[in-house]
Specification:
Distance between the termini: 24 Å
Helix content: 25-40%
Number of strands: 10
CATH topology: Rossmann fold
Strand content: 25-35%
CATH superfamily: P-loop containing nucleotide triphosphate hydrolases
Radius of gyration: 17 Å
Order of helices and strands: HHEHEEEEHEHHEEEEH
CATH class: Alpha Beta
CATH architecture: 3-Layer(aba) Sandwich
Number of helices: 7
Length: 225
């Protein structure tokens, strides 16, 4: 199976050039990322993998699994890499984590020398954080280590959707009582099938010129459809 890039996702209008630039910058800065959708096959894993292509060279990516023991494959010494959990979900798959496993994963973020990338099924920002904080009992402090949440919409029959689009990208500024305080950066206006930049991030994008460089690249390569 051919892996799609962020450029490909811009070309097929799953994301806008501005969204792609934000995700590329977030990966360069090793920000913690959460990809969310309701149905299966909405594109969470595809968008996640495309984003991870922009992590700094030599960045370790540790695929977590309960098959690797109680520590899930988290290295004993933080190495500045990503902890990758395929999904936060209560299933029988070894790389889908739940309960104590999710708390172990988030606990590894305490010293800020790991970043996290994962996905879950939810229909909104608030529901996604309820899954993390209420259903899996992760503290507000650790849930707030997530920097960006990417919400993906799939329109039509889930196995053969008519349209996939990143509907919202939020910057997470804090969590209190399980409720996220967030800033909406980008959105897809479904009724008009167009993307809109809503606001500039406050935390993501600290390297001057990086966003503009990526935006220029994605705009130049965009396929008009």
């Amino acid at each position: 199976m051919v892996e799609l890039t962020l450029g490909d996702l811009v070309g097929n209008r799953t994301i806008s050039p501005e969204m792609a630039a934000t995700l590329a910058v977030a990966a360069e800065e090793r920000r913690s990322l959460l990809f969310v959708a309701v149905p299966r096959m909405a594109g969470k894993t595809t968008t996640m993998r495309a984003t991870l292509e922009y992590v700094p060279p030599q960045t370790s990516i540790h695929l977590l699994s309960r098959a690797k023991g109680p520590q899930l494959g988290i290295p004993p010494s933080p190495d500045g890499g990503y902890l990758l959990a395929s999904e936060i979900a209560d299933t029988g798959f070894d790389d889908y984590l739940w309960g104590e496993e999710v708390r172990t994963m988030f606990a590894a973020l305490r010293d800020a020398n790991f970043s996290l990338v994962t996905a879950l099924h939810a229909g909104s920002l608030e529901e996604a954080f309820r899954v993390i904080t209420r259903d899996n009992d992760v503290s507000d402090e650790l849930a707030a280590r997530i920097d960006l949440m990417v919400y993906i919409r799939s329109v039509g029959y889930w196995m053969q959707p008519e349209r996939r689009a990143v509907a919202e990208i939020f910057e997470i500024l804090g969590v209190a009582g399980g409720r996220p305080r967030a800033r909406l950066l980008h959105r897809w206006i479904e009724s008009e099938d167009r993307f809109e930049v809503v606001d500039a991030p406050l935390r993501v994008g600290t390297v001057a010129g990086s966003y503009e460089k990526h935006l220029t690249t994605f705009q130049a390569g965009r396929l008009d459809r």
